[in-house]
C-alpha cells in the first residue's frame, strides 16, 4: 500500500493540471484573504438599537438595514439634539430599522425628488423627512410642519410607526410646556422619564442566540467565504486527478496486475484514499507558505486554526471527488460532476452572500453543504468561541462516514456489474 501511494504521488507530480490546482487554488485563497474590505454590503445589524448612517442619498437602505424589521429611510435636514432623540427613541421599539441620510445641504424640493426616486429604487417600508425647522415646528405645537412621511409599501407596521411617532412627539410637547422651550431642559426631563420606565426585556423564542459580528468581522467572514470557494475548487479537482489515475490504471490493466499480487481491492482503494489525504496536507502546506509571505495579514482567525479548518474541509472534498470520479469511471463526467458540486454547494452554503433572509427550505438545504458548517465554525472562531473545533471534528467525521459508506456501496455495485 505504501508503494502504491508513492507511485501515485510520483505520477501526479508529473501532471501539469494537478500541479496547477495544487498551487493556484491556495495562492488565490491567500490573495483573497490579503484584500482589505472597507465596507460590508451585507451588514449584520439585527438586534442593534442604533441609527444606521448612510453616506449619501444614493445608498440603499435595504443593504444597510435589518431586513427582518420595517426599514425606515430618514432624510434628516435638522440634525439637532431633538431630532437625534426622536430617532433614538424610535429605534428602541425593536421592529424598525432606521437608516439616516444627512440632507442639510438640500432644499425641500430636492429631497422630495429623491424620495420619489427611492420609493421605486429602494426597499424601505417608509420614508421620513425631518425638515430644517423641525425643532421650531415641534416646540410651537405644529410638528406636522416639520415632519413629512412617505408611505411606499403595504407593510402594516407603518401604522405602528406613525402611532408611536405621534405619541412620542406629543410627550415631548407636554414636557416642553413645563420647560419653556429650553431644549436642554426638555431632553433632561425626557431622559429622567425614560429612566423610570420598566426595563425592556428581549426574549429569544428561537432558543438560540445569534452570533453578533462587528462590521470588521462581517468583512472578514466574507473574505473567508471567498477563500473557501477557491480552495474547495482546488481540493475537488486534485481529488479528480487521483480518480483519473485510478481510471487509467483500470484501462491499462494496471489494476488487474495489482490484484495478481494478492493485494485486495479494498487495500488498493484505501491506498488511493491515503493519496487524497496526502494531497490535502500538501495543499494546506502550500496555503501556509502563501499566507506566511503576506505581511500584516489579519483576517480574524489565527493562521494555525485556519489551516486546520482548511485541512478538514479538504479531507471532505478530496474524498468526495475521488470516490465520485472512480464510480463514474469517465474523465469528462468526473470533471463535470466536480465543477457542478463546487458551484452549487458554494452557492447554497452562502459563501458568496449570506442566506439569513432566504426561505426556511433554502436554509435547511444549505446545511447539507459542508461549507455551511465550516462558515458557521468560522463565525465562532471570529468571536473567540473554541467550541468550533469540536464541532468541526464531528462534522468532518460525519461527512467522511457518509461519503465512504455511500462510495463503498457504489464501488461494489459498479464492479459487480462489470464482473470484477
Give the gist of this structure.
By secondary structure, the chain is of the alpha/beta class. It is built from 16 helices and five strands. Strand 2, helix 4 and strand 3 form a beta-alpha-beta unit.
Q: How would you describe this protein?
A:
This protein is α/β, with parallel strands linked by helices. Helix content is 64%, strand content 6%. It is built from 16 helices and 5 strands. It has helices spanning 2-12, 16-34, 61-64, 81-91, 108-121, 134-139, 157-179, 183-196, 215-251, 254-259, 265-292, 303-328, 331-349, 360-366, 370-382, 387-417; strands spanning 52-53, 70-76, 96-102, 126-130, 147-151. Strands 1-3-2-4-5 form a 5-stranded mixed sheet, sandwiched between helices. Strand 2, helix 4 (81-91) and strand 3 form a beta-alpha-beta unit. It starts with a helix and ends with a helix. The model is unreliable at 40-47 and 195-209 (pLDDT under 50).
Amino acid at each position: 500500500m505504501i508503494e502504491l501511494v508513492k507511485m501515485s504521488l510520483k505520477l501526479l507530480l508529473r501532471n501539469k493540471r494537478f500541479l496547477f490546482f495544487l498551487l493556484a487554488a491556495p495562492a488565490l485563497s491567500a490573495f483573497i484573504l490579503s484584500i482589505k474590505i472597507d465596507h460590508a454590503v451585507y451588514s449584520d445589524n439585527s438586534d442593534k438599537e442604533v441609527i444606521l448612517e448612510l453616506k449619501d442619498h444614493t445608498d440603499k437602505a435595504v443593504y444597510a438595514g435589518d431586513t427582518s424589521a420595517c426599514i425606515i429611510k430618514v432624510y434628516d435636514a435638522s440634525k439637532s439634539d431633538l431630532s437625534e432623540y426622536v430617532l433614538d427613541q424610535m429605534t428602541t421599539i425593536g421592529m424598525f430599522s432606521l437608516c439616516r441620510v444627512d440632507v442639510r445641504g438640500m432644499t425641500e424640493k430636492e429631497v422630495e425628488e429623491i424620495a420619489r426616486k427611492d420609493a421605486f429604487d429602494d426597499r424601505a417600508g417608509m420614508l421620513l423627512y425631518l425638515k430644517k425647522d423641525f425643532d421650531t415646528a415641534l416646540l410651537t405645537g405644529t410638528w406636522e410642519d416639520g415632519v413629512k412621511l412617505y408611505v411606499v409599501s403595504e407593510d402594516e407596521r407603518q401604522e405602528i410607526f406613525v402611532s408611536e411617532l405621534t405619541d412620542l412627539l406629543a410627550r415631548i410637547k407636554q414636557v416642553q410646556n413645563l420647560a419653556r422651550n429650553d431644549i436642554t431642559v426638555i431632553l433632561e426631563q425626557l431622559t429622567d422619564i425614560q429612566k423610570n420606565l420598566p426595563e425592556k426585556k428581549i426574549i429569544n423564542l428561537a432558543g438560540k442566540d445569534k452570533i453578533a459580528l462587528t462590521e470588521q468581522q462581517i468583512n472578514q467572514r466574507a473574505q473567508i467565504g471567498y477563500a473557501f470557494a477557491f480552495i474547495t475548487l482546488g481540493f475537488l479537482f486534485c481529488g479528480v486527478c487521483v480518480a483519473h489515475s485510478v481510471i487509467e490504471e483500470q484501462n491499462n490493466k494496471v489494476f488487474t496486475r495489482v490484484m495478481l499480487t494478492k493485494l485486495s481491492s479494498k487495500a488498493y482503494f484505501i491506498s488511493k484514499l491515503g493519496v487524497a489525504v496526502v494531497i490535502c496536507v500538501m495543499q494546506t502546506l502550500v496555503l501556509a507558505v502563501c499566507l506566511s509571505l503576506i505581511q500584516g495579514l489579519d483576517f480574524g482567525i489565527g493562521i494555525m486554526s485556519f489551516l486546520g479548518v482548511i485541512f478538514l474541509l479538504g479531507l471532505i472534498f478530496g474524498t468526495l471527488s475521488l470516490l465520485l470520479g472512480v464510480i463514474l469511471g469517465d474523465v469528462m463526467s468526473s470533471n463535470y460532476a466536480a465543477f457542478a458540486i463546487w458551484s452549487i454547494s458554494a452557492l447554497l452554503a452562502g459563501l458568496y452572500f449570506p442566506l439569513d433572509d432566504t426561505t426556511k427550505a433554502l436554509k435547511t438545504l444549505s446545511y447539507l453543504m459542508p461549507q455551511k458548517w465550516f462558515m458557521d465554525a468560522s463565525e465562532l472562531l471570529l468571536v473567540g468561541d473554541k467550541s468550533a473545533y469540536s464541532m468541526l471534528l464531528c462534522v468532518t467525521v460525519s461527512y467522511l462516514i457518509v461519503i465512504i459508506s455511500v462510495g463503498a456501496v457504489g464501488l461494489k455495485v459498479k464492479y459487480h456489474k462489470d464482473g470484477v
